[in-house]
Amino acid sequence: MEWSFKSAEELVVALRAGAVTSVELTDEAIARIERDDEVVNAICVPDFDRARAAAHDADQTLARGEDRPLLGVPVTVKESYDIAGLPTTWGMPAHRNYLPAEDAVQVARLKDAGAVVLGKTNVPSGLQGIQSFNEVYGTTTNPWERGRTAGGSSGGSAAALACGFGALSIGSDIAGSLRTPAHFCGVYAHKPTLGLVANRGMVAPDAPAFPVDLDLAVVGPMARTARDLTLLLDVMAGPDPLTLGVAYDLTLPPARHERLSDFRVLVLEEHPLIPTGSAVRAGVNRVAAALVDSGARVERHSPLLPDLTEAGTLYMQLLISGSRARFPIESYELLRARAAALSADDQSLDATRQRAMVFSHHDWLEANNGREVHRHGWRQLFAEFDAVLCPITPTPAFPHDHRPNLLERRIEIDGVEYPDLDQLVWAGLATMPGLPATAIPTGRSPEGLPVGAQLIGPMFEDRTPLRLAELLEQKIGGFQAPE
């Protein structure tokens, strides 16, 4: 039997029943990587010797009658996570030889759960952008069409899952970096509620792996089934043992409902700041039709929905000002001059980004206050709805675009070009207020490319969009292996 495309849940059952060994699963995964990854380039840092040793240990543990949630299951890890003994470069040549001494907290949790780590997956340089290419490891291609991107910044992880290189992966998300690659590659991903999952050790090379609270950014699970997302989130979730974990234990509330017919879902397919491509709109509407067919309450409009234009603006302000804080100080005066030259009437997202690059602390606090107003609005909306269904990006995977300047890249939506970064407003809808969002496959574009959508849920009620994703997988289907 071929095991490479089985779910992690199925592998756990088979391992416990003695139908397969972890060594067999690991050898099969490694053989597939060695056969198929030369073109896809998803696994940038293989760790096969240690994986085989870990698989052998897992089999011995199983033979003793012991059990752990992921015991013996082959997985991958995004390159940006520290793994002791392996390079963490973030795709930046200056850090090619950086070797962290300790595992990231999430890598440690994977290993404690018994997972077998096959290696690391590719990322964009500095984790910047929604493609995965860099000077250290090269370009990750989309398993469905090599001329297109697998997404970013967790593109290597999404491509690895689509190719059967391990049953699970872990990534990160600040601008759709979990959800967009899942959408482009036809797999599942979950952006947890901000602060739900400890992030220590998912840190830029040479930076100390302190347990810091990041703004906007989260780490989270990727898989080929919705149930596997929940399985992996249960391993990952919880506070850092060095800080909040000293005092707090985690108890996530259960999903609000167990049947599709009981869910109340608000469906959004259009954004005032960027059009939605026809293929993505069709995917959203396919899911909406399945909800209606199952008896769910589906609405297309609600006065409780926070203003989408304001939400997109606030997200760009917080995202860009936070990123800009790490730029060289000598570039500040030039950026300030450019922002000052903008017309006061220019309220485009590009102008918003340029102004955010020179935000003062006062400016940031104003944007943060706006975020709190939106969070309150979402709390009110989720008293009436259980989830919001909407796009992740406006299009399926697009052709590789390696122009060095992110601001010069363009995205084509049904034949019309727009600034590449404008498409982030859909991802930012959940990111800005810190809400959980689950990426699900919704079908194929007319060209045969995967198309996905996201289910946004109430803060810290991550099990609600995850359960809805599971029920929809049963209704409309889920992952399909590339042909």
From TrEMBL:
Residues 24-464 form the Amidase domain. PROSITE patterns: AMIDASES. Pfam families: Amidase (PF01425). It comes from the Bacteria. This is Amidase. It comes from Amycolatopsis minnesotensis.
